Amino acid sequence: GAVVSQHPSRVICKSGTSVKIECRSLDFQATTMFWYRQFPKQSLMLMATSNEGSKATYEQGVEKDKFLINHASLTLSTLTVTSAHPEDSSFYICSAARVLLILTTEAFFGQGTRLTVV
Amino acid sequence: GENVEQHPSTLSVQEGDSAVIKCTYSDSASNYFPWYKQELGKRPQLIIDIRSNVGEKKDQRIAVTLNKTAKHFSLHITETQPEDSAVYFCAASSVFGPGTRLSVLP
């Protein structure tokens, strides 16, 4: 399968600071990238969907000013958690999708980033 | 928007038995249904997927069926092995179900 690289894998930051997470598709062009948040022993909650060159579409309840998403190229998307607080501590994971056929896509996940805000 | 339900939330089977996980979705426009396996502390891995123009797909011990009319799809694992123990997630396009924790008992 295709390779998606996400960095960093772990980050600890102080409350009030910002953290940037990168998601790269290494061997294919990702038309769409998805950002998820996963709490312990729970499912992946879709935060936002981003298409290259356009603004991200955020899911209901996700603060777009707090979780800034940039999708500047077909191989890179970034998620910036601004003014992080302890409740933002979570596992964040991206997936990059490529189009296989009309209206069908295949998505691959990054390794995930475990964010701890202290 | 899309809503995906998944059952059961936990499933224990004896090694060698079959396991079945079922999902339903709400958006009839969804046309891609992947299944992911997530082991503890690791990223989800795509194990099989099915598209709306197909009713069934099989890959060795894993099979998936799709009923577009009823808007449900299922994952079937035969001859289960201890290494099949993990959390399995279904998805309708980019929306995930809540997951099923499968335990295969030796």
What does this entry look like structurally?
The complex is a heterodimer of chains A (about 120) and B (about 110). Chain A has strands spanning about 5, 10-15, 20-25, 30-40, 45-50, 55-60, 65-75, 75-80, 90-100, 105-110, 115. Chain A is mostly beta strands. In chain A, strands 2, 4, 5, 6, 9, 10 and 11 form a seven-stranded mixed β-sheet that branches. The model of chain A has no long low-confidence stretch (mean pLDDT about 90). Chain B is an all-beta fold and about 110 residues long. In chain B, strands 2, 4, 5, 9, 10 and 11 form a six-stranded mixed β-sheet that branches. In chain B, strands 1-3-8-7-6 form a five-stranded antiparallel β-sheet, with no helix packed on it. Chain B is globular.
Q: Concise description?
A:
Chain A is an all-beta fold and 118 residues long. Helix content of chain A is 0%, strand content 58%. Chain A is built from no helices and eleven strands.
Summary keywords:
heterodimer, A: 118 residues, mainly beta, B: mainly beta, six-stranded mixed sheet, five-stranded antiparallel sheet
| Average pLDDT score of chain A | 90
Low-confidence stretches of chain B: none
What general form of chain B does the structure show? Answer: globular
Spans of chain A of at least 5 consecutive residues whose pLDDT stays below 50 are none
Q: Main beta sheet of chain A: strand number and arrangement?
A: 7 strands, mixed
